[in-house]
Structure formats: structure tokens, C-alpha cells
Amino acid sequence: MLDLAAASCTLVHNRVYDELRSTSEQYAGCPKFIDSYWTNSAYLETDVLVLLLNSGGTEVAMSPISQGTDWLNIKHLQAPLALYPDPDGYVDSSEVLRCCNTYLSTLSNYASSAVHLPLIELHLKNEDAPVLLLLAIPVDNKQQERIYYLIADGKGNWQRLSLSELEA
Fold first, then answer.
1. Under CATH, which number does the domain 4-166 receive?
2. Which residues of 1-37 are buried (b: 16+ CB within 10 A; e: fewer)?
3. What was the pLDDT predicted at 1?
4. 69-74 and 110-116 as β-strands: parallel, antiparallel, unpaired?
């Protein structure tokens, strides 16, 4: 039996992701995405559209100052996230969120959006409920197995989320 709510979510997801990915290819300042998926996040206790960022050319470094905080070191200036540096040469997660939120306005069905850390709440015309977006950086081990994700922490840094916290 066809689940109309699930079908509607899939259509919205596909439209948002396809348009946003197209925007990221057209505009150099827009964050670059490698994939997306819907999940009911245990950590966030809601359904979210996870947008996976292209973090090629960066390297995760644990903060020596703050437990549970990671930094994303820019290894070369051609890295897609090199457009969002902090003064120390790390990727500023707040800038990535701000830029993504700005480029959401290019979506054809866009009504409004706002950052509510760590999410971006996207309102679309003709949709009753907002779409909650979570920008995440997938982190893999040397065997190319996913081990955790990084999400914005609201202070320009990154916070680790385990697979079980993010994936349903």
C-alpha cells in the first residue's frame, strides 16, 4: 500500500536536494554537497533532511581546548570548504550554515528559512510543514567505513555525532 506521507517527503527531499545541488554547482560561494537522506534523528528527536557536505581537502582535528569539539583543518585552498575559513585556517561551521541558508533562497518553491542551530528550518510554498535541514560532514576511517559525522556547534567549530545519534 502506498504511504502518501512518505511519498510526499520523498518528492520534497528530491526536489530540495536536486535544486540545492544544482545551485552549488552554479555558484562558487555555495557549499558543495555529495549526498542527502531523510532520517529520524535520535539526537534531534525529529525528522531531518541530512545534507552531506563535500569536505575533500580538509582534515579533522580534535580541539585541545574543548572536549567534544572538533576543528576542520583546511589542507589546501582548492578544498570546497576553504571558502569558509576562520582566522586560524579551520573551516568555520557558522559561515557554512550562513552561506547555505542564503543560497536556499534560490529554490523555486522557497518561502523563507532560518538557522536554528544545528538545523536550518526551510519553509516552502505549498508545503504545510517546514523541512528541517542538517548539514553534516561524513567522517570515514582508512577502510572507507563511516565512523561518525560532524555538525555545526554554533561557535564556528564542529561537534561529533555517532552513527546511532544521526541515522534512524
1. 3.30.460.90
2. eeeeeeeebeebbeebbebbbebbeeeeebbbbeebe
3. 46
4. unpaired
For the chain, the 3-state helix, strand and coil shares in percent, each to the nearest 5, are: 25, 40, 35
Task: Evaluate whether 55 touches 137 at the Cβ level (below 8 Å).
Answer: yes
For the record, the C-alpha cell of 65 comes out as 581546548
Asked if 92 and 84 touch (Cβ cutoff 8 Å), the reply is yes
Cα separation of 116 and 74, whole Å? 26
**Strand segments (E) across the chain:** 33-41, 46-53, 58-62, 69-74, 110-116, 119-124, 131-140, 146-152, 158-161
**The model's pTM:** 0.91
Residue from 46, 41, 44 nearest 168 by CA: 41
Per-residue model confidence as pLDDT tens digits over 51-101: 999 999 999 999 888 888 999 999 999 999 999 999 999 999 999 999 999
Q: How confident is the model at residue 36 (pLDDT cuts 50, 70, 90)?
A: very high
C-alpha cell at 72: 576542520
Residue boundaries of the structural domains of the chain: 4-166
**What is the β-pairing status of strands 69-74 and 33-41?**
unpaired
